[in-house]
Amino acid sequence: MVFSPLDERLKLGNHHWTPETIERATRQAVEIPSHRRAAQNYEALTQLALSKSSLERLTHEWGGRLVAQQAAEAEATVKLPERGEVSVPREVHEPDSDTMAVSLDGTTINLVGEGWREVRVATISAVEEVVQLERDEEQAVRLTRHSYRAGVWEVKECAQQ
Amino acid sequence: MGTSLQRERDETILIAELRRIHEELYEWREAHPDASFDEIAAQVTPRRRELIGLLLEQLTKQHGSGMVVEGRVCERCGQPMSYRGEPKREVQHYLEGETQLERAYYYCDRCESGLFPPG
């Protein structure tokens, strides 16, 4: 076990790069479908060397953390209390409108090293009624204040989100 | 908190470095009267990063190197950790470049793992 109090105070991890630097570099990696080109792009913008393999490793590491965090959040919403555990009711949030819309959709994306995978997306929106004067005051709805959750999930995993 | 002596010393070092960089750039510009803006900037950028790297190094250590009087206890086994000096590590920031950071470093003899500091 090793420890550096100053590293901890400065919120520096074990990497050579600061957390914000890793965030900037991995942003290139998720926007550009080639780690080599993403690393070259980062180097061109910052004039700092970053190898393809380092960028790939950082992207997997940070992406893995986000996936684990989302999975923990999802599990917490469906997990039953353990025997003897005191059940604390979750905070109930006020919905954005009396009627809410839930839309489900999916698409396929080409993941580096994995090929084509299906992405499932659930969108939750507030429903606002809109009177359309041009069409004899016919009522229509407008969806606003969207939030969404998306992931590369199988059907069973998707149901638990 | 940094002492006034440390503050003066840091300032002296920083100004001396700025003077050195200014001198270098001035000489370079004398020898390159037809340089474009981008060519001048290409000379400035790495030196700016050296200077700001030095400033960052000073600021990160303004409140000390992280050395603690009472020592540290290992989170894994609860034994006191031993002080192993202030090894350097390099930290890279996407805008400011590289900074050398000397910081106090503790090691757990019982766990005997991670002999080498990160960085």
Can you offer a commentary on this structure?
The complex is a heterodimer of chains A (161) and B (119). By secondary structure, chain A is an alpha+beta fold. Chain A has 2 domains: 5-78, no CATH class; 100-159, no CATH class. Chain A has 5 helices and 4 strands. Chain A has helices spanning 5-9, 19-31, 35-46, 52-78, 155-159, and strands at 2-3, 100-111, 115-132, 138-151. Chain A has a 3-stranded antiparallel sheet with strand order 2-3-4, with no helix packed on it. In chain A, a hairpin with a 3-residue loop joins β2 (100-111) and β3. In chain A, α2 (19-31) packs across α3. The longest helix of chain A is centred in the middle third of the chain and has 27 residues, at 52-78. Chain B is an alpha+beta fold and 119 residues long. Chain B has 2 domains: 1-62; 65-119, no CATH class. Chain B has helices at residues 4-31, 37-60; strands at residues 72-73, 80-83, 88-93, 97-102, 106-107. A 3-stranded antiparallel sheet of chain B has the order 1-2-5, with no helix packed on it. In chain B, strands 3-4 form a two-stranded antiparallel ribbon. In chain B, α1 runs antiparallel to α2. Chains A and B meet through β1, α1 and α2 of A and α2, β3, β4 and β5 of B. β1 (2-3) of chain A pairs antiparallel with β5 of chain B, so a sheet runs across the interface.
